[in-house]
Write a structure and sequence with these properties.
This protein is mostly helical. Helix content is 51%, strand content 0%. The chain is elongated.
Length: 69
Amino acid sequence: GKTQKPDYDYLNYKLSITNAQELKAYLLKQTKALNFAQLQKDVQPFLFDPDNQSVSLFPQIIAQTDFQN
């Protein structure tokens, strides 16, 4: 799939995030308390494929993704 490079100037200005590792750590920290199983149920009616588990797997996907600058 396509990959997009984050706008680190903007992320630095707004959140003091300057690189890929900081972005990954921020995403994991900010989403740690969320109930992704419930979020999956909440958005299921709006998904093209209701059986797609991407929402509930978001923390694992982020943790396993190799973020590069």
